[in-house]
Design goal:
Length: 205
């Protein structure tokens, strides 16, 4: 409902309206929750949960796709894309490599990754460069971070101290130009545009 959704929640929080920019307007979209045990996915063999890993996830997803195309042969041969975000920065290319290595009839045309989590140290460096490049952190703080941090496992307290000098000021890193994040009266943490305030029993949105 938050991103690719075919529907949007209306302001009354009760009804839906069509999302004219939904991916489902231009493609058939298949959502796969993986590895087994994530979301509504499960295994009938509980010991499978102890075998999770990137390679196992890739193999399971590949077997799922092969079985899915066998069950729905009308989709065979159509252009096929794999997309994902965050840790799918691992899952998506690994699944693509598995498909290509098996020389299947899956007509893989490309992959898409959004905000991919590739490497913790490089992600940290990327976030630092991004924040400095958008004037969220000062030249001085940035210079101290780049001087003190190698962005690898050798980094110690000097790097941690340099990074700690950056004050997020309650900004949301995924939306640095949006309203700041604040503590809501109900104890939860929201971007201020979503915070619900209560005055004398009346909810204000």
């Amino acid at each position: 409902m938050g991103e690719l959704r075919p529907f949007r929640v209306n302001s009354d929080n009760r009804t839906l309206s069509t999302n004219e920019h939904a991916w489902t307007n231009v493609a058939n979209v298949l959502f796969l929750e993986s590895p087994a045990g994530v979301g509504f996915s499960y295994s009938n063999t509980t010991s499978d949960y102890n075998k999770s890993g990137d390679q196992r996830t890739s193999e399971d997803a590949f077997l799922f796709l092969v079985s899915w195309f066998e069950r729905f042969p009308g989709y065979k041969g159509r252009s096929f894309y794999i997309s994902g975000e965050s840790y799918a920065g691992h899952y998506v290319p690994q699944l693509a490599a598995t498909i290509l290595s098996h020389n299947t009839s899956i007509n893989l045309q490309g992959i898409l990754v959004g905000n991919p989590y590739l490497d913790d140290n490089m992600n940290t460096k990327g976030v630092t460069d991004f924040l400095w490049g958008h004037a969220v952190i000062s030249d001085e703080v940035y210079a101290n971070i780049t001087k003190s941090c190698n962005f690898n496992l050798s980094d110690g307290s000097a790097c941690s101290d340099a990074m700690a000098a950056y004050d997020t000021a309650n900004t949301l890193l995924f939306d640095i130009y949006g309203p700041v994040c604040i503590d809501a009266p109900d104890g939860k943490y929201y971007p201020s545009r979503y915070v619900r305030y209560t005055y004398f029993g009346v909810h204000l949105f």
